[in-house]
Amino acid sequence: MEGDIVQMGAYIGAGLACTGMGGSAIGVGNIVGNFLSGALRNPSAAAGQTAMLFIGIAFAEAFGIFSFLVALLLMFAV
Amino acid sequence: MATEANGEEGGLALHPMAQFEVTPLFGGDTVAWYTITNVTLWMAIAVIAVTALLVLGTSRRAVIPSRVQSVAELAYGFVYKMLEDITGKEGVKYFPYVMTLFMFIVMANFVGLIPMAFTTTSHIAVTATMALLVFFTVTVLGFVLNGGKFFGLFWVKEAPLALRPFLAIIEVMSYFVRPLSHSIRLGGNMMAGHAVIKVFAGFAAIAAIAPLSVLAIGAMYALEILVAFVQAYVFTILTCVYLKDALHPSH
């Protein structure tokens, strides 16, 4: 328990890194929400745009995944 | 790693990450590149399942398709349409590669959802291999097909001239970070979902909250079935987008 301040810092850092996932979640929610509001106004055009929807989600999600990676590295690799 | 269920307070009955351990199948505890491990086994099962589905589905080509044939046709049409929509007619040449990727990933994800199974796609080593293969394929293809014009991918013509060098730096960085995000998206999603299921399974050892935890496992499992498909779809669609960049590099 005593003296392992590097380990403590790594765990705190891992927890802080996870807040990045929240930002990514906001981004994904924003994309899907806007897609839905657009799709409900013009449902006939919605089917053609699902690929774009998923590409957008994937790119927004990437940053959440980077923060997840940082958390994992801090937990297991540092 | 608590082995006793009621040993210490707050300790989980099973460690959520224990399911991702690579163990040799036939004794021994060193893992070399030739060792047959559980990863090898479940990858082979996924490959056999894909082969069985597609071979059985196309062996008796009836006008009124059987169930297996319908699934095989749906998968084929789905990937074909996705590729054609994004890359256009020129990209259809690369259909076998994209179809192979999609079928392997989706089957590995679904096979990994069987209880006690091993999810091969939850390992970064597996997904990084596929992502790096896509990355190198796209880079080589881009230079072979377009020569020096492939650098146009990084030189945004629509932007004002003063801004272009900075955009070029960002574009180059985002190009090289592609295999990283491409692989970790799939691996991370699969690993996180399975770990969450195992965390709830660990809570089931405590009698008071066991029913709630079983319900949560059911809900997470349903979500994981969706995620297994969506992540395979996202991996494939990003492969298509990268292929499109190699075929038409002008921004």
From TrEMBL, chain A:
One of its GO terms (molecular function) is lipid binding. Keywords: ATP synthesis, Cell membrane, CF(0), Hydrogen ion transport, Ion transport, Lipid-binding, Membrane, Transmembrane, Transmembrane helix, Transport. It is found in: Cell membrane; Membrane. The chain crosses the membrane at residues 12-32, 52-77. Residues 12-74 form the V-ATPase proteolipid subunit C-like domain. It comes from the Bacteria. Its main location: membrane. It is a multi-pass membrane protein. Belongs to the ATPase C chain family. PANTHER family: ATP SYNTHASE LIPID-BINDING PROTEIN, MITOCHONDRIAL (PTHR10031), ATPASE PROTEIN 9 (PTHR10031:SF0). F(1)F(0) ATP synthase produces ATP from ADP in the presence of a proton or sodium gradient. F-type ATPases consist of two structural domains, F(1) containing the extramembraneous catalytic core and F(0) containing the membrane proton channel, linked together by a central stalk and a peripheral stalk. During catalysis, ATP synthesis in the catalytic domain of F(1) is coupled via a rotary mechanism of the central stalk subunits to proton translocation. Key component of the F(0) channel; it plays a direct role in translocation across the membrane. A homomeric c-ring of between 10-14 subunits forms the central stalk rotor element with the F(1) delta and epsilon subunits. This is ATP synthase subunit c. It comes from Sediminimonas qiaohouensis.
